[in-house]
Amino acid sequence: MPRAREVNLVPESDLLTGPLNSITDVAGVLVGQTTLSRGEGALQPGHGPVRTGVTVVLPHGGNLFREKVAGAVYTINGFGKPAGFEQVRELGLIESPVALTNTLNVGLVLDSLVEYSLAQNPAIGITTSTVNAVVAETNDGFLNDIQGRHVRAEHVFQAIANASAGPVAEGAVGAGTGTMCFGWKGGIGTASRIMPPDAGGYTLGALVQTNFGRFADLVIKGFPVGQHLQVPAAAGPGNQKALAPGFKADQGSVVIVLATDAPLDARQLERISKRAAAGLARVGSTYGHGSGDFVIAFSTAERVIHNSPEIVRSRLVVNNEEKLLNVMFRGVAEVVEEAVLNSLCQATLIRGRDGNTAYPLPLEQVTGYCR
Questions:
Q1: CB of 229 within 8 A of CB of 362?
Q2: Residues 24, 57 contacting (CB under 8 angstroms)
Q3: Residue-wise over 284-294: b if at least 16 C-beta within 10 A, else e?
Q4: Are β-strands 134-138 and 98-102 bridged in parallel, bridged antiparallel, or unpaired?
């Protein structure tokens, strides 16, 4: 399947993409995923069918508890169950891999990250502080036996072990295996932008887990394509209803992970996190009452040594802050928009529990409208 840029679905921009157009264009960032797909037919709670997974983002490949990074979290709309956010808000640091999964699997994935950190740092909780693991989620219950909580420690460890700085698989993979976007199959998407030389030449990347949006609201390159697309003829009654315009409010969820090598502190990272909402708006989201829309951001520019007496400060001087942040704000909107579109363009048909089916975005129709 092509990426959005390959079929001319990305608005023109003065900002260039990184070599991979991925969050892994930010030097040092690693992404790993484990995809779980097994079983067919009727839902058997606790047993299957299984259409889920886990995606991990590591700010660097070292010991994150010992060498933390500046971080921030931002809640666009809080109908969700993330873990570890409050300490990040308070201290402005991230000290574990960032994991994405499904809603009912947050506890098990959190426990797995704690186990991973304990193996690296036996002093945790004994002679030093405890670890703050960060996990976010969306609900994949339309396709997946979500009660089964099928993502276990071995799957989290596998994702971490396989994490790489190379291209990131998109669509129905990892935490996006069972998620939907604007009524179509969504999943994992990523994109990047390079800041111009006069703004430091820094890299900004995004990775998204999309599970939001009404069928009729999808906007691509400013065109309300969702109002013109046809429901797949093969869609059963349940899918017809799910795809029909006006069926429900925008009540899904999205998790956005932002990474940059720009030397931003927690305050500045929170400021760029807020602009992620602009990227969601560009594709038609209205962040409904029942939507869980969360942003996690970090900078790889410097590592904060555990228990260091030093205060983390941005290396940006005041005169440069406005110039860099202005272009960063634009870049965030662009990378989030393109990452969402990539999650749609790269997704494939997935049939899950009870025959529920997620159809891929009909690219031939879409490109016809969005020339």
A1: yes
A2: no
A3: bbebbeebbbb
A4: parallel
292-305/67-78 β-pairing: antiparallel
Q: Which helix (H) or strand (E) holds 304?
A: strand 292-305
Instruction: State the amino acid at position 167 in one-letter form.
Output: P
Architecture (CATH level 2) of domain 4-364: 4-Layer Sandwich (3.60)
DSSP summary character for residue 311: P
Q: Which residues pair with 184 in a beta bridge?
A: 181
Instruction: State residue 289's pLDDT score.
Output: 85
Has 37 been annotated as catalytic?
A: no
**What is the distance between the alpha carbons of residues 28 and 55, in angstroms, rounded to a whole number?**
17
- Quote the strand ranges of 235-291, DSSP E: 253-260
Read off φ and ψ for residue 193, nearest 5 degrees: -140, 150
- Cα 218 from chain centre: 18
- Residue ranges in the chain whose pLDDT is less than 50: 240, 244-247, 318
Residue 319: its H or E element: helix 318-345
For the entire predicted model, the pTM comes to 0.95
Domain positions in the chain = 4-364
Q: Are the C-beta atoms of residues 211 and 254 closer than 8 Å to each other?
A: yes
Please pick, among 37, 293, 299, 343, the residue that the annotation labels catalytic: 293
DSSP secondary structure letters along 229-287: PPPPTT--HHHHHHHSTTSS-S--EEEEEEEE-S---HHHHHHHHHTHHHHHHHTT---
R_g (Cα) of the chain, nearest Å: 20
Q: How far apart are CA 175 and CA 92, in angstroms?
A: 25
Annotated catalytic residue: which of 37, 192, 253, 314? 253
Q: How far apart are the first and last CA of the chain?
A: 18
Name the β-bridge partners of 98.
57, 134
Using the structure block, give the residue that is written with the tokens 């899950």.
352
Among 291, 299, 314, 343, the one annotated catalytic: 291
Q: What is the pLDDT of residue 238?
A: 53
- For the question of residue 293 being annotated catalytic, the response is yes
